[in-house]
Amino acid sequence: MKNAIEYPPGPKDVFPYSTAWKFLRDPLNTLNTISQNYGDISYFKFGKLNVYFLNHPNYIEDVLVANHKNFIKSRGLQVSKRLLGSGLLTSEGEYHDKQRQLIQPTFYPNRIRSYAEIMVKKTLNLCHNWKEGTELDIQKEMTHLTLEIICKAVLGYDIKPEDDQIGDSLLTCMNYFNRLLMPFGELIEKIPILSINKGFKTAKENLDAIVFKMINEHRIKLEKNENKENDLLFTLLKSQYDTVEGIQMSDQQLRDEVMTIFLAGYETTANALTWTFYLLSEHPAIDIRLEKEIYSVIDNKLNVSFDDIQKLEYTTKVLTESMRLYPPAWALGRQAINDCKIGKYFIPSGSIILMSQYVMHRNPLYFPEPDAFFPDRWTDEFKKNLPRFSYFPFGGGIRSCVGEPFAWMETILIIAIIDRLWKMNSVSSNKVILKPLATLRPKYGMRLKITRRS
Fold first, then answer.
1. Residue 61, pLDDT above cutoff 50
2. How many Cβ atoms are within 10 Å of 111's Cβ, its own excluded?
3. Helix axes 93-103, 251-282, angle to 10 degrees
């Protein structure tokens, strides 16, 4: 039967694992080259795994929406379970559906509206601490800001000075997962004395300590009936005591959900902001136009609220275009649990389906001059004619990012406030190289010089 399978076109390995090694060394260029050479669906081997790379919106929609029950999360997210456990991002089936049902109301529009004040306050605090002419690593600044916001708004926790190691611990974990995905990567875990294993163990312990500190603080308030705020962590804790339609969580499940929301809720947003400010520093004309809109909406007293977001039309276009060029989640994968068909090709069960936002967002069929930063392309007419999965920075289908509305609001507010107060200027010594780990980060950070708006 295997010999009868017609595989899509794709690169052939001259040496064993050569395509896999190319992918691991430079996944963005490797996938871009494969899409250009082999079209809408291609095939290659990744070690012993059969990988089908989809580069057509209709095929991606088939996997994420029409036939989503035939696919589970692929190896990348299975590896991330070492940190996230069975949280919303990694869980499957009925358990995932119940967890999403519990968490979803936190990100309903009426709840999200209440978070705007926290977002504005935290952003203004950051801006007031900056000094004229300073050269900053904007990635670090945005990481700290979005971490403070997700912790306070969604988890009801104020970041402490001793929590500063969070970013470094997260980066250690992502580098570790990247190594495990390499051919023979599973052997790494079997040698505990390796420094990479020790580093991951320490990083996980640091993150666990912070998460359990959040949980314990909330549990004490709940037991004393001092839970005046109705944040997500209180909702999760209450589910341990109250059975709601069969949803009840163990301590381990609670930890996994908090870890997932805690980490997924700030890393992607921080990267989206970092790339947006980088692009603005490289395109002064776009920055001037953005500044004019923001000045027309936000007054000198810096009064800004949720209701102002709909007025920030060009700001929204800038962010949309930034996430087209540099989507925080640059690829996603699924694994077929049954035989299926994509296009004209038979896909055996166990096969890996790979889709890349980074590659699809730069497809010239849907985005003329795909490498250009051109916010004005996002007219209502353009969006209306765009295939659904030609642009999907937050994924799609029932597994799409539950916090997408939160992320849009947060990112637009932060861009508007920071751009109202500070101009980002490019630094000639800044070395901008992409580092695609779990998210698309700048490899060496993002150094920009800030000058105060007049």
1. yes
2. 18
3. 70
For the chain, how are helix, strand and coil distributed in percent, rounded to 5? 55, 10, 30
* Cα dihedral 68/74/80/85 (nearest 10): 50
What angle in degrees, to the nearest 10, is found between the helix axes of 116-129 and 138-153? 150
> What predicted TM-score, i.e. pTM, was given to this entire model?
0.90
Residue 260 has pLDDT above 70, yes or no: yes
CATH of region 88-329+370-452, choose from 1.10.630.10, 3.40.50.300, 3.40.50.1240, 1.10.150.120: 1.10.630.10
User: Which amino acid does the sequence have at 227?
Assistant: N
pLDDT per residue over 162-186, tens digit each? Answer: 777 887 888 888 888 777 766 555 6
Higher pLDDT, 83 or 137: 137
Burial of 238 (C-beta count, 10 Å sphere; 0-12/13-18/19+): middle
Would you list the domain boundaries of the chain? 88-329+370-452
When pLDDT is cut at 50, 70 and 90, the band that residue 187 belongs to is: low
Q: E-assigned strands of 38-176?
A: 41-46, 49-54, 71-73, 135-137
* DSSP strands (E only) in 87-145: 135-137
What per-residue confidence (pLDDT) applies to 140? 93
How many of the other CB atoms lie within 10 Å of CB of 434?
16
Around Cβ 100, how many Cβ atoms within 10 Å?
14
| pLDDT for res 171 | 81
